[in-house]
Write a structure and sequence with these properties.
The structure holds 2 protein chains of 2 kinds. Chain A is 69% helix and 0% strand. Chain A is mostly helical. Chain A is globular. The longest helix of chain B has 34 residues.
Chain lengths: 198, 485
């Protein structure tokens, strides 16, 4: 079970991280547009399309990665007080009722939407460059599939927590600076690690 | 049960699920799809295609069978299943998803986040604090003044509160405690100062509010600038004032080698630490306010500037870049997925008549505009105890927004009040992020109760700032009017 969870984690995180680098393309691309416009008086025809495509790709493809690393917002002030077993039971139920319907809808409806766009190789109408846009719409389906896979891993995590009373973490991860510092402080015996929000 | 009642039930179920601690973005999506399926259910539309196929197979002539034009069992089953997917909620859901993906306001979010993460890792905070300390040395409570200014500047550049509070908690808090500052006083300064980043532009929270409320982000930035300075100014006056009145809170440190620094040394220090960051922020903000660049363009320049700054401070390593890139993705995903769910949820909710029901209810209360305003802000304040700013703005603020025209409240003004108000959500228990972060890195002996005690006066200052903004609209109106007429 642990192997499956980590396999799915690694897969979704790999896709997530690959698309995360879009931020570099976005930074340089959009900044180039500004320089080009003011220094060379030559605004680009593609920068606007580039900016929302990169932004869309970053957050859509990051959904599953964020879920795997527990980065999505949750109002967990009660949740934190429960034992892992209770947490697992509640979460398992909620995953089935309140996770999969939305994600499945995203995959199926997204496919219908993207398929139509692929059929006539849709291009952007936002800018004169006529950048192709159908691949961007396919991201909806791709994001849905990643979320679905991650959902399976999360369900397995819940089952594990119900049975063994402990959560399985993500095996490799980047942390927020404050989390790194909090952990280091806790290791040094400063501030109690227990009473802070995760 | 009538449709509006079902809408209220949908909201109730959703809120219950939040409190169970499930990731909010996905709950929103699923609740919206499930209730939307009911809301847009249309039996005719659903079975149209299946009925046509059945009819065709029943009226089949031998010639048609010969030509293979009659749907077989397999195709009929396919049509039958396909019927379930033939509901407008799915189109709505995908369309809303796509409008989040191609929203030209939200594009600035990953860029500002990236800039923030890079600057956060650029080893800038130590220099900044040292410099501002020697600069402010003659003022009462100099270290607290320097800590507040560092927090404000750094929080403005990064826009994320956690990092600045922990960084300052590791750096400034021990220094202040060594100098025999009062623990509560010192802790309060860091917590309150670290939260200013969500108010002072270019703040990410304001972008999120702009996307929610359709107020122009440029106007919002222009409007929030002076209220932000006002609040920072109030903090500063309070810190200096209290330190002057009660020197025991912030005793003058004994003479040390920094006393011998000449004015030139101080200026050199300022040029290498304070000005680069300040200029970066001003350039980004100026470009937006004077219409030279869109917020996303300015944000990309800011991110580029942040990278250059990090290179100049020799702190840009491969690991740090990688961390910043991945964290940018995680935080963008966290914020933007909530929009995906929230916009679908809102459409379904208002289609079922939930919005009209709330409208009717609130208007039935017969409130004056000021009463409504106070009620709304009190609700947002209370929501800030258990929830985070992103949930409040993306999910709960849209409930209030349609009511604003009835009370003739400017959504710009409402947004600024919320930005002021949400400062408190980081400072009040049980989810006082700032206080917990500080507690987590504070030297032993600093208790949560002391931190909360130190934060109290700042909560009062936030309230004063809100009242001032209400009474003197010029504070938020002057700049947008001066620039855009």
């Amino acid at each position: 079970m642990i192997a499956t969870i980590h396999l799915i984690d690694r897969l979704t995180s790999w896709f997530g991280r690959a698309f995360a680098w879009c931020i570099m393309i976005m930074t340089f691309g959009v900044a180039f547009e500004v320089f080009s416009r003011y220094l060379f008086n030559a605004p680009t025809a593609w920068a606007f399309d580039l900016s929302y495509m990169m932004y869309g790709a970053i957050f859509m493809m990051g959904g599953a990665y964020a879920l795997a690393t527990n980065a999505h917002v949750r109002g967990d002030f009660l949740y934190r007080l429960w034992s892992p077993k209770t947490q697992g039971r509640v979460e398992l139920t909620l995953y089935i009722i309140f996770y999969f319907p939305g994600v499945l809808a995203l995959i199926f409806a997204g496919w219908k939407y993207a398929e139509r766009s692929i059929r006539f190789t849709e291009v952007s109408v936002m800018s004169p460059a006529g950048m192709p846009i159908f691949q961007f719409k396919v991201l909806i389906v791709a994001a849905g599939v990643l979320l679905f896979m991650q959902g399976i891993a999360q369900v397995l995590r819940c089952l594990w927590a119900i049975r063994h009373g402990e959560w399985i973490g993500h095996d490799e991860d980047v942390e927020e600076l404050e989390d790194i510092m909090l952990r280091e402080a806790a290791e040094k015996g400063l501030g109690p690690a227990a009473d802070r929000p995760k | 049960m009538t449709d509006p009642q079902i809408a209220i039930m949908m909201l109730a179920i959703f809120i219950l699920t939040i409190f169970l601690g499930f990731p909010v973005a996905f709950t929103l999506m699923a609740v919206a799809v499930i209730f939307g399926y009911y809301a847009y259910f249309d039996a005719d539309r659903q079975w149209r295609s299946y009925d046509r196929a059945v009819e065709k197979s029943e009226n089949a002539t031998p010639e048609m069978i010969q030509a293979g034009e009659v749907p077989g069992m397999l195709e009929l089953t396919g049509e039958w299943f396909g019927g379930f997917l033939n509901n407008r909620i799915f189109d709505l859901f995908v369309n809303q998803t796509y409008s989040v993906m191609s929203n030209d306001v939200l594009t600035a979010i990953p860029l500002f986040l990236f800039m923030g993460y890079i600057v956060e890792r650029a080893n800038i905070v130590t220099r900044l604090f040292d410099t501002l300390y020697v600069t402010a040395k003659r003022l009462p409570g100099a270290m607290a003044v320097a800590a507040l200014a560092t927090c404000a500047l750094f929080a403005t550049a990064t826009g994320i509160i956690g990092a600045v509070v922990t960084l300052m908690g590791m750096l400034a808090l021990p220094s202040m405690l060594r100098a025999n500052y009062d623990t509560s006083f010192a802790a309060g300064v860091i917590c309150a100062g670290g939260c200013l980043g969500i108010l002072i532009p270019p703040s990410i929270m304001l972008i999120v509010y702009a996307a929610t409320s359709n107020v122009s982000i440029v106007q919002l930035y222009a409007g929030a600038l002076f209220p932000g300075f006002l609040l920072a100014g109030l903090y500063m006056v309070y810190v200096v004032g209290r330190a002057a009145l009660n020197p025991k809170l912030a005793p003058k440190p004994p003479a040390d080698e920094t006393d011998e620094l000449t004015a030139v040394d101080v200026i050199v220090k300022l040029i290498t630490s304070f000005f680069p960051l300040a200029i970066l922020i001003l350039a980004v903000l100026g470009a937006i306010l004077f219409g030279l660049a869109t917020p996303s363009e300015a944000a990309s320049l800011g991110a580029l500037g942040g990278l250059l700054l990090a290179i100049a401070y020799r702190s840009l390593t491969w690991d740090r870049l990688r961390e910043s890139v991945y964290l940018t993705m995680k935080t963008s995903a966290m914020v933007c997925w909530m929009f995906v769910g929230s916009w679908t949820f809102a459409s379904v909710f208002s289609w079922l008549g939930g919005e009209a029901l709330i409208e009717e209810f609130v208007l039935g209360l017969d409130l004056t505009p000021i009463q409504f305003l106070i009620m709304a802000q009190v609700i947002i304040f209370i929501l800030g105890w258990p929830l985070e700013w992103s949930e409040i703005i993306i999910i709960f603020v849209p409930i209030f927004l349609p009511l604003l025209p009835f009370f003739e409240i400017d959504p710009l003004f409402f947004g600024i009040l919320i930005a002021l108000n949400l400062q408190t959500s980081f400072l009040t228990p049980p989810m006082a992020m700032a206080a917990y972060y500080l507690k987590g890195v504070a030297p032993p002996g600093v208790e949560l109760a002391q931190i909360f005690k130190g934060v109290m006066p700042f909560l009062v200052l936030i309230l004063i700032a809100m009242v001032m903004v209400y009474n003197f609209p010029g504070i938020y109106l002057w700049l947008p009017n001066a620039i855009y007429g």
